[in-house]
Design goal:
The strands form 2 sheets. The protein has a 3-stranded antiparallel sheet. The chain has a 3-stranded mixed sheet with strand order 2-6-3, with no helix packed on it. The N and C termini lie far apart (about 130 Å). The chain folds into 2 domains: about 110 residues; about 55 residues, Nucleotide Exchange Factor Grpe, Chain A, domain 2 (Roll), CATH 2.30.22. With about 170 residues, it is α+β, with helices and mostly antiparallel strands. Helix 1 packs antiparallel against helix 2. The longest helix is centred in the first third of the chain and has 81 residues.
């Protein structure tokens, strides 16, 4: 067989492999480019989400502070009345401020912890136990109110809990 025919046959056999290899290289480059674009898009998304979260937190704080401003104004008026020795106006002013602040916090989801009945360690903090005629383990006095925000306890109620009843003549043998 002539040499030219042999070279042409080898080239013909190698040509499909070279074309296939070149096609695979092109596809590989295209996939790498797509992957790099997706990675850049994801990085941009992550940064945008972090900025949005920061802005949301800032706006939430701004909103509650804005709602507290009228309470601050009323408190200032009450203090001015105190300087003028108008005790009745001072008391009324403090009551007004307390009521406004209480309503504002209720709108935000704040609710007092219930203290009726049995001691519950999830929402109550026992400061001490006292002998009492009440049922042992029941709350007999609230020292400091507790509060919930939604389902979460912000501050447990500090309470005095009924202990065992004192027996008459307890120390005599």
């Amino acid at each position: 067989m002539p040499e030219d025919v042999e070279n042409t046959t080898e080239e013909a056999e190698q040509a499909p492999e070279a074309v296939e290899l070149e096609a695979l290289r092109a596809e590989n480059e295209e996939l790498i480019d797509t992957l790099q674009r997706l990675q850049a898009d994801f990085d941009n998304y992550r940064k945008r989400a972090a900025r949005d979260q920061e802005a949301l937190v800032a706006r939430a704080g701004e909103r509650i502070v804005k709602e507290l401003l009228p309470v601050l104004d009323d408190l200032e008026r009450a203090l001015e009345a105190a300087e003028e020795h108008e005790e009745a106006k001072l008391e009324d002013g403090v009551k007004l401020v307390h009521r406004q602040l209480e309503q504002l916090l209720e709108r935000e989801g704040l609710a007092p912890v219930e203290v009726d009945g049995k001691f519950d360690p999830h929402v109550h903090e026992a400061l001490l136990t006292q002998p009492s005629e009440s049922e042992e383990g029941s709350v007999i006095e609230v020292v400091q109110k507790g509060y919930r925000l939604g389902d979460r306890v912000l501050r447990p109620a500090r309470v005095v809990v009924a202990g065992p009843k004192e027996e008459p003549g307890g120390d005599a043998p």
